[in-house]
Amino acid sequence: MEMDLVVALKSPPIEPKVTFNSRIFYGLQKFGRAGLIALAAAALCCTDSEPAQAYKGGGPYGSEVTRGQDLTGKDFSGRTLNKQDFKTSILRQANFKGAKLLGASFFDSDLTGADLSDADLRGADFSLANAQKANLTNANLEGALVTGNTSFKGAVITGADFTEVYWRDDQRKDLCKVADGVNPITGNATRETLLCE
């Protein structure tokens, strides 16, 4: 056993087999940190300085961005904006009077004080939307989605049609306190479409 140890100590060290891949690995180890810094600097220098604009062309409104935007006071009256994406947008006092908004998404949008009178909102998504003090006079919201904490507190709903809109009981009861009128297009009474007692 002592002899084996003496022979092992006297023999020349075994050189590792050097291949192309091991040279790359060695180079990365030696220059890795500096290389990564250089790559990061090049990436910063060569990229656009403007941030990317999300969700261009979110519907028939063209190439303008309507999702996640501040569109306070914007006039959309009389426009055809079916399936338009207004998710998470600020639409305070926006004018949608007489607009066609079938299947449009107002998910988590702020519609405080917006004018939605005479609008065709069938199948629109108002989930988590804040439509407090909005004007929904004679609007058609048949089959609209109002899941979550959707709020229409203080909204004017005279003549609005809420057929097949599934409200939480507390939301429906609040709307029934102010519900009146008949929708001129569908002929449905607002109170009946809300299933008021």
UniProtKB/TrEMBL annotation:
Domain of life from the UniProt record: Eukaryota
Designated name of the protein: Pentapeptide repeat-containing protein
TM stretches of this protein: none
Any Pfam family matching the protein: Pentapeptide
InterPro entries given in the database record: 5peptide_repeat (IPR001646), At2g44920-like (IPR044213)
SUPFAM superfamilies to which the protein is assigned, alphabetical: Pentapeptide repeat-like
